[in-house]
Write a structure and sequence with these properties.
This protein is mainly beta and 223 residues long. The chain has 3 helices and 15 strands. It has helices at 13-20, 190-198, 209-222; strands spanning 4-6, 24-30, 38-50, 53-59, 72-76, 82-85, 91-93, 96-102, 112-113, 123-128, 137-146, 150-153, 166-168, 173-181, 185-189. Strand 5 (72-76) and strand 6 (82-85) form a beta hairpin. It starts with a strand and ends with a helix.
Length: 223
């Protein structure tokens, strides 16, 4: 395996910083007794940023816990600004969740989607969070298998990787979202993201990814 795990000040610092300006930290917690409080930390993936509003996608697993109504969520932007997220505002389609957050923070740069599917042995990167304020981890690996709508990679998983860590290529483009661990990590690919997004809102049905992004932006600007 060709793998490397870098903290913020690792060898891939500039590459890592570029990712970090395009991601938010989704923090979910179950407010039980303080000593038993449960947390989930995953990257949220901004796909549109305009007019003080950020439209974000993530894996739906974080919102589908058995006792989901007992969990609270907030979005932490790259500058540290935290905004509450109301569960009822989250739209879910299969493995994908989508939501918009209004903020006074500086808006993150939306991710760029890859126009090409991954290939076997291609180098890829995941970004993982392990805590509220701890630095994110940039993890390097390679694609081990390409399937229909998904692919597998050998990036070393973190605690919450299967809750939706994004997968990027060497051009800093989004190529997938992690969702299962079989010893190697399975991620659904951009085609699957497009398919799931098209079912989030009737106005996005049967549209291409670029048309979906244009629809989201136009809807935000019209409100």
């Amino acid at each position: 395996m060709d793998q490397n795990v870098d903290a913020v000040h690792g060898d891939n610092h500039a590459f890592h910083v570029e990712f970090r300006t395009s991601l938010v930290r989704l923090v979910s917690n179950k407010p039980v007794e303080q000593a038993k409080r449960k947390y989930i930390f995953v990257p949220g993936i901004p796909i549109v940023s305009v007019n003080g509003i950020c439209y974000i996608i993530s894996h739906s697993r974080v919102f589908c816990q058995e006792d989901a109504h007992n969990w609270q969520h907030e979005v932490i932007f790259p500058d540290g600004t935290a905004e509450p997220l109301i569960t009822e505002d989250v739209r879910i389609q299969g493995d994908l969740a989508a939501f918009s957050v209004s903020t006074t923070a500086g808006l993150p740069d939306p991710v760029k989607f890859s126009g090409q599917q991954v290939s076997h042995n291609q180098e890829v990167y995941t970004v993982n969070y392990e805590g509220m304020r701890e630095p994110s981890l940039l993890v390097r690996g390679r694609v081990t298998h390409v399937g229909e709508g998904s692919f597998f990679h050998d990036c070393t998983p973190g605690t919450f990787t299967i809750y939706g860590s994004p997968v990027f290529n060497e051009q800093s483009e989004l190529v997938g979202i992690c969702h299962k661990n079989y010893g190697v990590i399975e991620a659904f690919d951009v085609n699957e993201i497009e398919k799931l997004l098209s079912g989030i809102d009737p106005g996005m049905a049967n549209k291409s990814l670029s048309e979906i992004l244009q629809h989201i932006k136009a809807t935000i600007q019209a409100n």
